Amino acid sequence: MTARPTAAGKQQSGFAYAWALMAVLIMGIYLAQVGEAWQNRAQRAKEEELLRVGAEIRRGIRLYSEQNMMQGTQYPKTLEELVLDPRSPTPRRFIRKAYKDPMTGDDWAYISAPGGGFMGVYSQAKGKPLKQQRFPSDFASFANQNTYQDWKFANWPNGKALKR
């Protein structure tokens, strides 16, 4: 025969169950915070990559447009033209490769240039940037922007790269 549980035994098992539920609740809260911190870290890394790649593309557009200035300012029509300049008989590279938008993994949106081509790019991501302050001087206009689409990497005509 098995022994019947006593009233004290029932009370203890109920108490242990309450502790187990509380432990699961605390672990769930902790894991949610860890997940949020990990997501923020990943987003900050993408933002840094966006700034690095955007600066490289803007620099490539500037170098491309300064080449052959006697024929007037010309802008590239695609990122591939920055990778390998079709205007030159010798291979000229202004950027390493045709980068994808780090925030979306897709193509960039182009800022149209006067006379054709594009004079800049921006991300098509709609999210709000985590970084809002303390940008390098080249990106001072990015402070307090509402979306990544407001971060414009452009070689504005007349050298106004920092004013927009």
SSE string: HHEEE
| Shape field | elongated
Helix/strand class: mainly alpha
Q: Rounded to an integer, what's the Rg over CA atoms?
A: 27 Å
Major β-sheet profile:
3 strands, antiparallel
User: How do the strands line up in the largest sheet?
Assistant: 1-2-3
Report the helical percentage.
25-40%
The strand count comes to: 3
Secondary structure tally, helices: 2
pLDDT < 50 stretches? none
- The overall pLDDT, averaged over residues, is 85
- Could you tell me the strand content as a percent range? 5-15%
Distance between the termini: 86 Å
What does this structure look like?
By secondary structure, the protein is mostly helical. The chain has one domain (11-159). Helices cover 40% and strands 7% of the residues. The protein has helices spanning 7-66, 79-83, and strands at residues 109-112, 118-122, 152-154. A 3-stranded antiparallel β-sheet has the order 1-2-3. A hairpin with a 5-residue loop joins strand 1 (109-112) and strand 2 (118-122). The chain is elongated. The relative contact order is 0.12. The model has no long low-confidence stretch (mean pLDDT 85).
